[in-house]
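User: Could you go from structure to sequence for me? I need the amino acid at each position, not a summary. Structure tokens:
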């Protein structure tokens, strides 16, 4: 996600800490997320961070969302959903807008993750966050004695799974999940940077799917969606 600092700078971050989020209002979660970034990343006092988080939330809920993503809410058919996503490209910002737009339909947002762990020799030495947007200029948020090369290696090689769900009131659910290797375009095949998509239309039990994600296991039939701008 990209967030604008008070000085106009844009930040895109990769975090070594991912919260588990269980069926929360998308707007409420986003506001809390923006508040955390404002205080932890930009060092703003709480009153200023609250003001910024409300402004950022208002901006994002009014951003246009790609029609093909919104159309996912209108069909229960797996083949139709895959047809909507086929040969399309989306950005992390598109995904965030889609999650926020789901709130208009009564959708709830959940996030589950798996972290393969930090090598024993690096435990206690990693920062809170690593900004690896520019591999030539790594930024660490928090204390660390690791070199830039070690931080970049950690981001690119750590086994990490992040799954984001939207649940609708009628029981339908949708999930985009990603791995660090997929984001780096290093998974097998010529997929490039991509995420994966599954939904309740795939006949997968949601609870078992979530348990798998928490253990680092991803379904083998997820539909690949090209990711750009990461």
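Assistant: Here is the amino acid at each position, in order:
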């Amino acid at each position: 996600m990209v967030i604008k600092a008070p000085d106009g700078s844009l930040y895109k971050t990769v975090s070594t800490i991912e919260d588990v989020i269980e069926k929360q209002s998308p707007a409420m979660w986003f506001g809390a997320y923006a508040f955390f970034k404002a205080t932890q990343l930009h060092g703003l006092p709480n009153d200023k961070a609250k003001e910024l988080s409300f402004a950022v939330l208002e901006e994002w809920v009014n951003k246009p969302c790609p029609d093909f993503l919104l159309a996912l809410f209108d069909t229960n058919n797996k083949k139709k959903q895959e047809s909507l996503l086929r040969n399309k490209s989306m950005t992390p910002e598109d995904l965030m807008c889609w999650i926020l737009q789901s709130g208009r339909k009564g959708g709830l947002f959940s996030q589950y993750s798996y972290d393969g762990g930090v090598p024993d020799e690096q435990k206690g030495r990693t920062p809170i966050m690593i900004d690896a947007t520019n591999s030539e200029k790594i930024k660490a948020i928090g204390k660390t004695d690791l070199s830039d090369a070690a931080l970049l290696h950690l981001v690119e090689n750590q086994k990490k799974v992040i799954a984001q769900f939207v649940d609708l009131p009628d029981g339908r659910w949708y999930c985009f999940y990603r791995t660090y290797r997929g984001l780096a375009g290093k998974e097998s095949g010529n997929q490039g940077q991509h995420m994966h998509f599954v939904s309740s239309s795939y006949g997968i039990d949601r609870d078992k799917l979530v348990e798998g994600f928490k253990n680092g296991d991803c379904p083998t039939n997820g539909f690949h969606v090209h990711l750009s701008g990461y």
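One structural detail worth keeping in mind: The helical segments are 26-40, 46-61, 67-70, 78-85, 92-102, 148-157, 180-183, 206-214.
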